[in-house]
Design brief:
The complex is a heterodimer of chains A (112) and B (115).
Chain A: E1 4-6, E2 11-14, E3 19-25, E4 30-38, E5 45-50, E6 55-57, E7 60-65, E8 70-75, E9 84-94, E10 97-102, E11 106-111
Chain B: E1 4-7, E2 10-13, E3 19-25, E4 31-38, E5 42-49, E6 56-57, E7 64-68, E8 74-78, E9 87-94, E10 105-106, E11 110-114
Parallel strand pairs in B: 2-11
Antiparallel strand pairs in B: 1-3, 3-8, 4-5, 4-9, 5-6, 7-8, 9-10, 9-11
Classes of the chains: A mainly beta (112), B mainly beta (115).
Chain lengths: 112, 115
């Protein structure tokens, strides 16, 4: 079983829709969590950090559920420009540093 | 600031050839990483360097070597390239050490084809 799992999609939604992705992780020692966005043939870029209390940045809301070991990303009022692959990242503390493990990504396609 | 830079952007090798991928960051980050990304596989960690002078294996280190030349530079070497190493290679860096410092910044990638 992969340490970090995501539904690859694609999620195909119309503009204005609300869409949610989940990401599950297997290592309970995981310390920090992030969502990255990757456009086709480009490098990943940080979208937002994920905290237990939940955090919101405009149309994006991220949530962490430690008990069930998953993180979520909610996108409201989808825009065409939100079309991308969304990667979740889980960091595990090891020997004074943090080892990142990426999920395979969830593809989002927003259509007119 | 340029952030994280990688050279070359594209490379074609023949099986058995060797090459070094270069990565440099100008953000005074402590930690640096090398990943490969294959279709449908996501990003897989090859090697990382938590701080200058240290390197450790990641998930898929076989066939690769790394050098943390100084705090800025972290190179990835393929000693004898194989077609299975055809991939997009990303370098990343982070401040490291603290939970807040693990945010990674990526270079633009090197697209490598091994024939």
């Amino acid at each position: 079983r992969k340490e970090v799992e995501q539904d690859p999609g694609p999620f195909n939604v119309p503009e204005g829709a609300t869409v949610a992705f989940n990401c599950t992780y297997s290592n309970s020692a995981s310390q920090s969590f992030f969502w990255y966005r990757q456009d086709c043939r480009k490098e990943p870029k940080l979208l937002m950090s994920v905290y237990s209390s939940g955090n919101e940045d405009g149309r994006f809301t991220a949530q962490l559920n430690r008990a069930s070991q998953y993180i979520s990303l909610l996108i409201r009022d989808s825009k065409l420009s939100d079309s991308a692959t969304y990667l979740c990242v889980v960091n595990i503390a090891s020997g004074g540093s943090y080892i990142p493990t990426f999920g395979r990504g969830t593809s989002l396609i927003v259509h007119p | 600031n340029a952030g994280v830079t990688q050279t070359p952007k594209f490379q074609v090798l023949k099986t058995g050839q060797s090459m070094t991928l270069q990565c440099a960051q100008d953000m005074n980050h402590n930690s640096m990483y090398w990943y490969r990304q294959d279709p449908g596989m996501g990003l897989r960690l090859i090697y990382y360097s938590a701080s200058e002078g240290t390197t450790d294996k990641g998930e898929v280190p076989n066939g690769y070597n790394v050098s943390r030349l100084n705090k800025r530079e972290f190179s990835l070497r393929l000693e004898s390239a194989a077609p299975s190493q055809t991939s997009v290679y990303f370098c990343a860096s982070s401040k490291g050490y603290t939970v807040e410092g693990v945010t990674q910044y990526f270079g633009p990638g090197t697209r490598l084809t091994v024939l």
